[in-house]
Amino acid sequence: MDLQEYDEIIRHLVRIATYQDTINERLTASIERLTASIERIDYSIERLTASIERIDRSIERIDRTLAHVEITQARIETLLARMLRTDTNGRNA
Q1: What is the pTM of this model?
Q2: Between the CA atoms of 21, 23, 24 and 27, what dihedral angle is there, to the nearest 10 degrees?
């Protein structure tokens, strides 16, 4: 191999190294953007998790309230039934 062939190989290697540097810079920028996106997603997940926990607590309160309403409704129905029986019995007597 003569000097010119070595020189051409070296120039080619320099171009390859330069292109590799460009690729590395692009990859680094992409990784930084992805990292920022992941951080935003993590923050969103934390907020959603907190919201879900608040909703779960609200549902539990609603369930307890509904149970109390059902009990109250049953008591009212029982009292009405007794009142109607008494009224009917009172009229028949």
Answers
A1: 0.61
A2: 160
